[in-house]
Design a protein that fits this description.
The protein is of the alpha/beta class. The chain folds into 3 domains: about 220 residues, FAD/NAD(P)-binding domain (3-Layer(bba) Sandwich); about 110 residues, FAD/NAD(P)-binding domain; about 100 residues, FAD/NAD-linked reductase, C-terminal dimerisation domain (Enolase-like, domain 1), CATH 3.30.390.30. The protein has 13 helices and 22 strands. The longest helix has 20 residues.
Length: about 450
């Protein structure tokens, strides 16, 4: 049985079914999950038009207007999400040999899941938990007196608020701030530090900060919201310096926590991650029957990494059921080894941030950091005044890459080559022979290696 039918749960179920098992997939909301209806897909649909308009303005001779049609943007977003209709996902499950089960599933015993409070299902081999994560709400006085937006409300909105307040400088905060600014909102982004995206290289946050301000977002740095209340003309936000903002909607984007409510009988408190080994087996539960993948594990809360872990867990469960040996060695098909070394992520702002592996050198190590501007023929042709930066972190003892960060317009498609180089531990003197095509932005690889001294 698999609990949670988002992209991660669907992959885990499909891999187990492909391995010959009969699989039940339990979901209490929509088959397809958060990513399909409220996160990755709709957020990128909202961002894309604004990014395109900004890109078109950087190339002389392209006829463009100054405004985006919000109705058309929302309609295209709705096409991608199917307006919440998950029948296609249910049909896909049945076509893959998976039995979809609607209802809230709770683990009530060993290999036992109770759905809807009264339907008891028992797994012969294993249960895989893929329940994702839920928003973390900060304890701000007055927040309970209004109806704040979370990421779901932001990505499913059908109108543009005249004034939007956003709290949080992580991925959701910066992406939604820029999306709604492009759609016509007056956006105020409140962040606690000097720049957004604090987990990335500092230059990434600096360039995204500049991009947000260029897009018209008012960014309040080194700040926070100390109180919220309903005012006569909108929601009043009191910032930490005592100043006040009045907005029509207030998006709280301050992070997420694993959705582990209902597992207290196994000593796991709500919000505490299900710690797993690289095959997805939950370490806190004896018997080896409970597995997990995705955000609920706290390992690498990204859809693509969750699906990667789901492939390992589903394949492991199927192999164990068939009596096939399961290798727990690094880089085996049964292990999610890359979670520790090579996690790629893209922030789809303008400029984009594309990063994999380490953002900086390890403390006390002999690692070397190489930073350069993205200034090659390909970037110059791509956009007038192209501004971007690239970084690589090198293990000088082994002569391999540990991390790469790109920031700039349309750099996301450069990321997979960096991921391959890190996963494959390609020596830099061999990487030198991977000749980038001219004139493309990928020539930045040549410049990075030259700056390193090759």
């Amino acid at each position: 049985m698999v609990i949670g039918a988002g992209p991660v749960g669907e992959v885990a179920a499909e891999r187990a079914a492909r391995g010959g098992l009969k699989v039940a997939l339990v979901e209490h909301e929509r088959f397809g999950g958060e990513c399909s209806y409220w996160a990755c897909i709709p957020s990128k649909a909202l961002l894309r038009p604004g990014n395109l308009l900004a890109a078109a303005k950087r190339v002389p001779g392209v006829p463009v207007g100054d405004r985006i049609d919000p109705a058309a943007v929302f309609a295209r977003r709705d096409w991608f999400t199917g307006k919440g209709d998950d029948s296609g996902q249910v049909d896909w499950a049945r076509g893959a040999g998976i039995e979809p089960v609607r209802g809230h599933g709770v683990i009530t015993g060993e290999r036992e899941v109770t759905v809807g409070g009264d339907r008891v299902l028992t797994a012969r081999h294993a249960v895989i938990v893929c329940t994702g994560s839920v928003p973390s709400t900060p304890p701000i006085p007055g927040l309970d007196t209004i109806r704040p937006w979370g990421s779901r409300e932001a990505t499913s909105a059908s109108s543009v608020p005249p004034r939007l307040g956003v709290l949080g400088g992580g991925v959701v905060g910066v992406e939604m701030a820029q999306a709604f600014a492009s759609l016509g909102s007056e956006v105020h982004l409140v962040i606690t530090g000097p720049r957004p995206l604090p987990r990335n290289a500092a230059f990434a946050g600096d360039l995204v900060l500049a991009g947000l301000r260029e897009a018209g977002v008012e960014v309040h740095t080194e700040s926070g919201v100390s109180r919220v209340g309903a005012g006569a003309s909108g929601t009043e936000l009191t910032l930490k310096d005592g100043s006040t903002l009045v907005v029509d909607e207030f998006l709280v984007a301050t992070g997420r926590r694993p959705a582990t409510a209902g597992l207290e009988r196994f000593g796991i408190e709500p919000g505490q991650p299900l710690e797993v080994d690289d095959t997805g087996r939950v370490s806190a539960v004896d018997g080896g029957w409970l597995f997990a993948a995705g955000d609920v594990t706290g390992r690498a809360p990204l859809t693509h990494q969750g699906k990667y872990g789901a492939r390992a867990a589903g394949d492991t469960v199927a192999a164990l059921a068939a009596g096939t040996p399961v290798s727990s060695e690094a880089w085996s098909r049964f292990t999610a080894t890359a979670d520790h070394h090579a996690v790629p992520q893209v922030v789809f702002t303008d400029p984009e941030v594309a990063a994999v592996g380490l953002a900086d050198a390890r403390p006390g190590s002999a690692d070397r950091v190489v930073d350069i501007d993205i200034a090659v023929a390909g970037s110059s042709l791509h956009a007038d005044g192209y501004t971007g930066k690239a970084r690589m972190v090198v293990d000088t003892e082994r002569n391999v890459l540990l991390g790469v960060t790109f920031v700039g317009q349309d750099v996301s498609e450069l990321l997979h080559s960096a991921t391959i180089a890190i996963v494959g531990e390609v020596p830099l003197d061999r990487l030198w022979h991977a000749v980038p095509s001219f004139p493309t932005i990928s020539e930045v690889w040549l410049r990075l290696l030259e700056a390193y001294g090759l």
